[in-house]
Amino acid sequence: SDQMAPSPNTSFTQEELNKLKSDDETSWVVKVTPLRTKLDDLDSTELNIAVTGETGSGKSTFINAMRSLQSDDEGAAETGNIETTMEPIGYKDLKMSNVRFWDLPGIGTMKFPADKYLREMNFNRYDFFIIISHCRFKENDANLAKEITRLGKKFYFVRSKIDNDLKSMGNHCRIFNEKEELAKIRNDCIKNLQLAGIPSPNVFLISNFDQNLYDFKLLKSNIIT
């Protein structure tokens, strides 16, 4: 059956982006058109969401968190400090059975260098993408964003392990402004995605292990009702 490609149609001008950045940095993404609003007409049609990014960025842990599972629960995606995903594996959402998350291998490993990865992952089979990034914006993040956009697909950019970033900052600075640091991280992601040719990127900051912090609940509500 035909699959509907979700297409958040938010389009921000630079002036609007600047205004959003001056507002509450942890809430401006609420203005993004929720992906879940695109599910209304799907009925039994399956929506395939690919979760991609570098090894160690937390792709599998993110999928488990989205499905409200721990890594040792039955049916959970395998997690670890090394790349545990050697081929795309699909996991149905527990609440919306027509939504399937695909855990893709990590880009940039010896087995999947960037050029080989983009050739072999067959991005055309997926309707929507989640790019998971951590620590800092990397060249492979830009490569993924460019390829997804080239194919006419849409994506959310997710910066994971934000709790680790703030903890590291606290270890180096006795006093720092958490809101300002979150703004710096968000704006750095936006700037680099814009340099990669994505004028209005949708960026979420999350911790997979504490879903009450940052943008996790907002991101989940934009995908799953």
TrEMBL record:
Please verify whether the record's keywords include Coiled coil: no
Q: Which PROSITE patterns match?
A: G_IRG
| Oxidoreductase as UniProt keyword | no
Q: Which UniProt keywords apply?
A: GTP-binding, Hydrolase, Nucleotide-binding
Question: For this UniProt entry, which segments traverse the membrane?
Answer: none
Its protein name is IRG-type G domain-containing protein
The cross-references to InterPro entries, in alphabetical order and at most eight, read: G_IRG_dom (IPR030385), Immunity-related_GTPase-like (IPR007743), IRG (IPR051515), P-loop_NTPase (IPR027417)
Recorded superkingdom: Eukaryota
Family label: Belongs to the TRAFAC class dynamin-like GTPase superfamily. IRG family.
Gene Ontology, cellular component aspect: membrane
Give one GO molecular function term.
GTP binding
One of the Pfam families matching this protein, by short name: IIGP
Organism name: Chiloscyllium punctatum
What residues does the IRG-type G domain cover? 45-225
